[in-house]
């Protein structure tokens, strides 16, 4: 799975220089499964809504969760590598999502998969 890299993190969840993986670069959903979330391209000047499902020091764990999310067809999935406190971590995110209602619905679906409830990230 392609990994986008952040060039700088502030340690408080905010980032500078983050490059997102486009939906076309993410792993495709399993054949026959349709995404259930609304995918909307980012609008210049308008923040995008993402759900951060986890942050992993182990790349295999990040990829395993990303693969699970891709198979569920919840929307575009990205793995973003960043450094926090001198450690390299991979944030697994779903999005951008169309709106807050969609984010709430996808949050419930992710929790229903047995994964932790994701944190909302607005970029």
Any key phrases for this structure?
disordered N terminus, 5-stranded mixed beta sheet, 2 helices, two-stranded antiparallel sheet, Alpha-Beta Plaits, alpha+beta, 30% strand, single chain, 123 residues, 22% helix
Largest sheet: 5 strands, mixed
The coarse silhouette is globular
How many β strands by DSSP? Answer: 7
Mean pLDDT over the residues: 75
| Fraction of helical residues | 10-25%
Number of domain units: 1
What is the CATH fold-level name?
Alpha-Beta Plaits
The CATH class designation is Alpha Beta
N-to-C order of helices and strands = EEEEHEEHE
Protein name: SPOR domain-containing protein
Domain SPOR: 49-111
InterPro entries: SPOR-like_dom (IPR007730), SPOR-like_sf (IPR036680)
Region (Disordered): 1-44
Task: Provide structural commentary.
The chain has 123 residues and is of the alpha+beta class. It has one domain (4-11, 18-122): Alpha-Beta Plaits. The chain contains two helices and seven strands, in the order ββββαββαβ. It has helices at 59-72, 100-112; strands at residues 4-5, 8-9, 15-16, 49-56, 77-84, 87-97, 119-122. The strands form two sheets. The chain has a five-stranded mixed sheet, with helices on one face. The chain has a two-stranded antiparallel ribbon with strand order 2-3. A hairpin with a 2-residue loop joins strand 5 and strand 6. The longest helix is centred in the middle third of the chain and has 14 residues, at 59-72. Mean pLDDT is 75; it is low at 1-40.
Question: In short, what is this structure?
Answer:
It holds the Pfam family SPOR. With 123 residues, this protein is of the alpha+beta class. The protein has helices at 59-72, 100-112, and strands at residues 4-5, 8-9, 15-16, 49-56, 77-84, 87-97, 119-122.
